[in-house]
Specification:
By secondary structure, the protein is mostly helical. It contains 7 helices and no strands. The chain has helices at 5-27, 38-41, 46-64, 71-100, 104-116, 120-126, 129-155. It is elongated, with a radius of gyration of 18 Å.
C-alpha cells in the first residue's frame, strides 16, 4: 500500500474535483433549467481530469522513481490511480446525487421522456443512482487507463 500513496492521494483529489464540478454544473443550471446543454458541457471536465493525471504521474516519476519513469511504469501507476478512482466513484455518485443535486435524476428523466421521446421505463432505469454508479466505475477504469497511456508518453523519462 505504501507504494501507492501517491495514487491514493490523487484519487482523492480526483473525487473532490468531480464533486466540485458537479456543484458548478448545478450552479449554472445544467441539472435543471439548462439540462438540454448538460451532455455538451459536462464533457469539459475531461480537461482538468487529464491535467490531474499528468500531475499525478509526474509526481510519481519525481518522488517514487527518482526522476525517471518508463512508459509502462507510468501506465501501471495510472491504472492503479484509475482503479482507486473507480472504487471511490460510488461514494462520489452518492454524495453528488444526495447532497449536491438531489433532483438531477428526476429532471434528466423528465427531459429524456418529454424532449427526446425516450421510453419512460428506460429513462427511469438509465437516470438512476444504480446506473450512474455502474457507469462511473466502468468509465473511470476505461478512460483512466486510456488517459494514463497517453499521459505516460509525456511523463516518461529515462
Amino acid at each position: 500500500m505504501k507504494n501507492f500513496k501517491i495514487e491514493f492521494k490523487w484519487a482523492i483529489y480526483f473525487s473532490i474535483l468531480t464533486l466540485f464540478w458537479l456543484s458548478i454544473e448545478k450552479g449554472v443550471g445544467l441539472h435543471d433549467q439548462h439540462i438540454d446543454l448538460h451532455p455538451i458541457y459536462t464533457n469539459l471536465i475531461a480537461i482538468p481530469y487529464i491535467l490531474l493525471y499528468y500531475l499525478a504521474l509526474r509526481q510519481k516519476r519525481e518522488w517514487f522513481y527518482n526522476g525517471q519513469i518508463t512508459w509502462s511504469q507510468a501506465v501501471v501507476s495510472g491504472a492503479v490511480l484509475s482503479a482507486i478512482v473507480a472504487l471511490l466513484s460510488p461514494l462520489v455518485q452518492y454524495i453528488g446525487a444526495t447532497f449536491i443535486t438531489p433532483d438531477y435524476f428526476k429532471n434528466a428523466t423528465e427531459y429524456a421522456i418529454e424532449q427526446r421521446n425516450m421510453n419512460p421505463d428506460l429513462a427511469k432505469q438509465y437516470f438512476s443512482m444504480r446506473s450512474y454508479i455502474i457507469q462511473s466505475i466502468f468509465f473511470a477504469l476505461a478512460m483512466g487507463i486510456v488517459t494514463s497511456a497517453l499521459v505516460a508518453l509525456f511523463v516518461k523519462k529515462k
